[in-house]
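Summary for the lay section of the report: proteins are chains of building blocks that fold into shapes. Here we show the chain for SWIM-type domain-containing protein and then a coded description of the shape we predicted for it.
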Amino acid sequence: MHDDVLRSSSHRTLMSMGIMENAVVLLCKRGDVSCGVLLERTLSFQSLMTKLFAKWKDLSEGSFSLSYSFAGHPKCLLESDEDLCVLYALTLSSRTECVDVAVKDLVDTSTVSTVVDVCSSSGDVGCGQLVLLDSVGTQVDLLPSFSGTNNSKVLKSAGWCNAIVGVGQVFLDGAVGFRDALSMYSLFHGFKYVYAKNDAQTVKVVCLERHTSKECNWIVKAKLEMPSGYFIIKQFVGEHTCGDASLSYSSSHSTSSFVGRLVSEDMRSDESKRPVEVMKDMKKHYGVEITYRRAWMTVKKARAHVYGDYMESFKELSWFVGAFRASNPDSMCVLERHDSEHFKRMFLGFAACKNGFTFCRPILFVDGTFLKSTHNGCLLSACAKDGNQGLYPLCLAVVDSENYDNWYWFMEQLKDFLEDGRVLVFVSDRHDGLLQAVKQIFPSSPHSHCLVHLKENLKKRFGGLDNSKKKYLVNLFNLCAYAPTVREFEKLLNKLKKEGGVKVAAFLDTLDNQHWCHAYFPGKRYGELSSNLVECFNNWIKKERSLPITLLFDKIRLKIMEQMSARRSASMKWKDVICPIMEKKFKGLFNVSKTWAISRSSDDLYEVRCDPSVSVNISSRSCSCGEWQINSFPCAHAFCALKRGGKNLNDYVDHYYSVDAFHNTYSKSINPVPTIWKDVSVGSDANVLLPPLCNKRPPGRPRTERIPSTGVKSRKITCGRCGQVGRHNRARCKEPLQH
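The coded shape description reads as follows.
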């Protein structure tokens, strides 16, 4: 009864301190001294070690062990985060609020140092002063405290001290678990070992020094126990008699598979982790040195462990197609394979995006980008812009390469998928296969060539010209593209040909004016002249492009699904009639037109006197400057006229820019594709999809970055180490420091 009262009182006290209800107190006892540590769900083993080091200053890594008893188990070890999770789960299931934890010294600390009261007759040390002595009366060296060498860091490998305990220790994971424990134990204690015997039944290991010079007694032997399949230690001599000869920071047994299992969780949160970062992390967090090649293999195996194997991923693709169709029945998924059952190509279109596209401007930005997986390949995509000028992906496909055949197939699937009665406008680069495919599948659709790519192609014709001349000619070409009237365009084009010379004139003659300039373009492209939007999409999925194919499709689906949900929620807070980006554009027009004078001719016709003056017709939504007609959004002159006429600006903006259209764009959702009911035998039948037929791999390391076009300027960065402005940072700096 008394215990219940105390427990209830302590529980109320903890709650009053703001401590969570499910917290458990660990009473850690060392000798005759005990201290309390609060066990919460978020407590890590490393944090527990730090707390104990703070309580007992003379504790150090590897000098003690932690254990507790529980319901018939007198000694349960605490050595890792997993052990803490098990303890926490046990306390919840048994409703225990306090657990006794034994802190046992592996080395007798009483022989390390002693505090004595010394009375020196010589007068060097006064009576009653405290002097720290060791067991033989020698004063303890405090010099390391000035260099920081006594401030040892608690490593993640602190729990590896007792990975091997003694005879009778059981390893539930069999030989793999025993070998991992060996690696942990040897890495923590800093010695190397060799296998005297290593097979499926018996593993016998001796110290490297014993193997070479017969001078060390350390040995461990474990055998397979049937029928359980467990490995049990049968012999263990834990004392090294070789002194410090075997101490080493590295180990040949820290294999890439072993290290890969250690860093797999980090790889899950950081898909772009590099081998050099793995090397640094292993040294910093585990005190282990590994080679670059081992780190490279570690990254490869860790990615396979976290994201799956590239080859095996193709076996799951058929399951993904079926699961995607079941959860998103109105979406479109087309998987093609060769006669030999090898993967050929796959198209994925989202019904929610198709529904929303009807409320977006009828412009499609299409492009292809390379994949970074083992089998290379290419990802084709079609994107649009929502009313707030945001990226709006519609569909994508994975093919073996960017060629006419694949672009033709992609456009066929796109046409079947959209079923859009509007005349679509395409914006893309000038890839031959893409141009032909669009012309054949969408013969009535205007096709705009990306102005950015055209300017880069033009720069290649500038041989021998200085930079100022190049900039001038590129700017002149830019003006040609934006010229609103045929008269102005022809005037600027003739000037460009004259000043650019024969090569520039020859390049311009290869361009069809109706594909790149405003003056001749036959369709309505809302002022969009470049395909940068789809380049943004390629960069948006940069990390996903290195994933196995099934995960690639699923991760992109997940990313688009989350984006649609986030934008739907954000738009619910908008109070204006038109989208924020376009509303901001109106405010900019107001600032531009403050000083202009306006004269009214009729209810719909106005003259805006600026330099030069223009005529605005409100009823036809036109301005003599041409900007309103081209962009389908009021220009600064139209803004003036509308304000003067007392008109509502929102009534003269295309519906595509309205908040209502934005809501409709994101009104539907992409449904999840759960794996909970996925058959474990997926990929094991005879009709499974095989990886694509491999082409000969080009020499050198696989490229992961796009080759920039000629004339593209990369952003210069300032190195944080040497201070130089260039293309390297602190991590890649090889410059000698100047003093």
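Put simply, here is one thing we learned. The chain has a mean pLDDT of 82.
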